[in-house]
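Troubleshooting entry. Yesterday's outputs looked truncated, so today I'm pasting the complete records for two proteins to confirm everything comes through intact. If either block looks cut off, that's the bug. Protein one:
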Amino acid sequence: MVNSTLRPLTGLFLFLSLVFFLSLGARNPVTDSIPQPRSLSPQWEFSGFVDAFYAADILTNNKGGNRIQPFLFNHNRHNAFNVNLAMLKVRAESDYYRAVVHLQTGTYAIENYATEPALLQGIYEAYAGIGLNVKKTIWLDMGVFESHIGYESAISIHNETLTRSMTAENSPYFVTGARFSYRPKPNLLLRAVLTNGWQRIQRSPAQSWPSFGTQIQYTSDNGITLNWSTYFTAVYPGNTERKKRFYNNIFLRQDLPGGLSYIIGVDIGRQEDRQLGQNKDTYTWVTPSALIAFPIASKWRMAARIEGFRDANNSIIAQDFSAWATSINFDYQPTTEVAWRFELKHLRSSDAFIEAESNLIFTTSIAVLIGE
């Protein structure tokens, strides 16, 4: 058994070994051996994003306060106008390096980064990367970056629906660590990540060694995207306690002619809890989802989603949590940079805290991309 003090070094060694051998395998003997003119001068990108919203329970008084639900982190303020996310981004990329500083504020940042120190809650992304080959198909990044899990972003205008699914809200939006990315072909992405833990900037004291994740994403010529992402983490909350978590994210997306698109996905998590000298307890949670989106008129688009979340052992949300949700969206988008959106979401569950607080939620938002 590996000594606990050596586990971080073991994980780092395995990650760097993977980077090294994949980099060797990715070398092209023709293009990589011939000196190529490369430039240090970066291309600069300055952009921003603002998502302002109003949300309200329609059928209940929301006795839980101003939050719509404790397991929702986007657009979750009841009966009030708010800014979900406001961002400023600076990006530079040359033939040798790339760097991103992406700052944020809003109710999403307040809710989803609540466990981080105040000075770190304003970081959406902040990383530096080095290009490992001439063709810029191999990169190694370090810092805070978007998670490799899921088909939904915290940036609402990039998604087919206004609010996020329960799956996205309860899996990592971001991770902190090292990310190795390799594109052997333009339509194939391979990734490996070594991180501080499950959606963390600052490492938790219980996280005694880094977490590890992978991603394989393939896009076909007929608009189909297949993705499989994994994540493994282990924490040690006490001297005699150990928790291991293995997570799978799988989805299929197809963009069809005429603007029709659909996504089918399922996430499966498995957690092992063990006390020293006792048998381990194993828990599994499953979160299926499906959506379809299509144009209904000039500059108008519609989307519908159905999703479920089953977590019977308090691994992610709450004791014996089980819920289904359906939603319908109407979007007015005069350009790709602007969206005025409306959504009606219905939550169904036997859990008392859902029934007592929220089961029919109306949300509207105006989102604008600046300079992207």
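Protein two, checking that the full record survives here as well:
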Amino acid sequence: MAQTATISERVAQLQGFINEGKIIEAMNEFYAPEISMRENNEEPTVGLEANIAREKEFLSVVKEWKWTKWTATAVNEDEGVAIIEYAFEFVNTDDQTVVYEQATVQRWVDGKIVAERFYHG
């Protein structure tokens, strides 16, 4: 399927999925089968199935998703790169409120993210 949407449009669509709590659905819609995802300097997790499993592991400790705040987005359509800064809050299964801030660099090809690296404290 040929993508006609710009990267900026796809990023906005992705953010909409996340705002609705549709994390796994977003991965299936916006991430390429060969996706490589990396946290800071850790080894990347490669492949959509492996990354969905990793995300499900994270979501298993989320009792309630409170909010996501998108604070900055920059897109270079020619280079296929999006940089996004955001924060989110959730209540974990121990009833603790967690606020998390991070930035991500995404590399897009044909409307799908092929590589993503997260930067956080």
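Both blocks look complete. Sanity check on protein two: The chain has one domain: 7-120.
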